[in-house]
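Before relying on records like the one below, remember that each one covers exactly one chain. Contacts with other chains, cofactors or solvent are not represented anywhere in the record.
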Amino acid sequence: ERQHGGAVATCKQTWTAESTQPRHLRGARHRLADMNVLRAIRFVRSQPLLRLTTNMVHSGPQAQPSEMPTASNPLRPFYFAVHPDLFGQFPREKKVNESSLKKLNGYLESIQAGCPHLPPSVKFYIRENNSNPDNRSPVGFKSVQFTILSQDFLSVVEEILSSCDLPTCHLEKLRSVRPVKQPTARPLRHWDESVVYDFFTRPGSHANRRKMRKDIRLRSWVNSNMPKIEKKLQQSQKVRETNRTLENQLCEDYGVESVDSDCELGCLLVKSCLQSFHRLCRQHPELTDFLKGKAITFSNNFSGVSTEGQLVLSHEDVWQHWFMLISSLPRYEALVQHIPVLEKQLSALMSHVKICRDCNVATVMADSYAKWLQRLIESLRLDGTEHFFAVGNLSKHRIVLQGENSTLRLSQTGQFLVPISCPPAQLVRFISTKRSDSQYLMQQYDRDYKVEQEQMQRCQEELELETLMKDHNVSMPQMISCCRRLRQQHSELDPLLKGARLRVTQFYSVMQDGGMCIPWNWRT
């Protein structure tokens, strides 16, 4: 309790300061604060480096621990004070704490590994009670900024706790239990060169693994991994059948149009998502009115509503987040219906160019995509659209909007990938110089797409594959070449790949559900 007194006091001060608000707001804030505190506690307890030994928790103050506590135990009060989940109502402070916490954890891990990198300069916000009675704001923040100069772990911990006014008396006990080895000081440039040289030259390094991977043959790899593949297929068969049953129940009982999931999610994760969603619908039957006619996708990224109106649910989110998202579906429906209007406005400003949505990247949510469209429309109206009239009619060309951190370029499909931060004059010059290349790539893409679909269908039928898919980083010419070679080796590969769940990627791997990943340039 002495070690965590600072964190507990901070939480108590915050709740006391917020008690002056109306009763209905105070109850809602208390429930949200309780959820955030519980999430922070679960985060700290889930970290393998943050667990206390049994003797440290249950023994008295004079008892000696049977083993040295793990290195990050002294930082528990600090994590409780600055964890981002405690700042849910303050997005700016939450973002700063989250970014600084990632930098700090990376530096601490490098110290424990014995190869510290450049010391970071971090900034944190700590909630404190506002002592000024005239100030109307019930919650105040103290900004703490420091640069870590030491490479000794306990010294770094002491700097952090002292900067945040947290207790440091327990550090002397840790120093007396086990002395910390001081790392040998070396110039950063010399250390970096030696690590890079060792990484690419030692046995089993990344470069050597790439050389070894070239010698793998498809037939030998399938033969050696067949017991593992058959075992996982047998184990996942019942899970996949259960998933199909749960999906059919959602469609029949709640009027859901379709249920899908990202290919990165294993069948066990999909089963867990389906069971959680069924439980949510049973506990809150009022949600069924929002789900009628909706397409649901369980995602590996984040939750939201896609530009096509699909309900995207992340497997990492808690059911409360799913509940709030489903409850707000009517607002998203109006936004999805407004997106085509914005696309027509943007197309009219850009000489009737076709506005396409990229399906080869992570799903872009409707609210973000609408902001992208509005931002580019405002930029064109402020700068003037007379530039595009000089280019001519662009109705045969396509553009895809992307985030502001991307670069203006021409994709392999002939589409112009346009960041929303691109100046209109630069965009016009780029389109003018790349129009002929875009036209050629689009014609080639249309031809390759038909050939790819035909080759995939014939390959799946001839080899009797259960499924045949490819990763987004496998181009159409690569997939066409792979399918043709598989069909040429039909007589030798048919007994091995019959009934297989095949995925063409850049590497060999056995998936959790028994699927096989093979590189597109596999060797016989």
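The CA atoms of residues 24 and 134 lie 24 Å apart.
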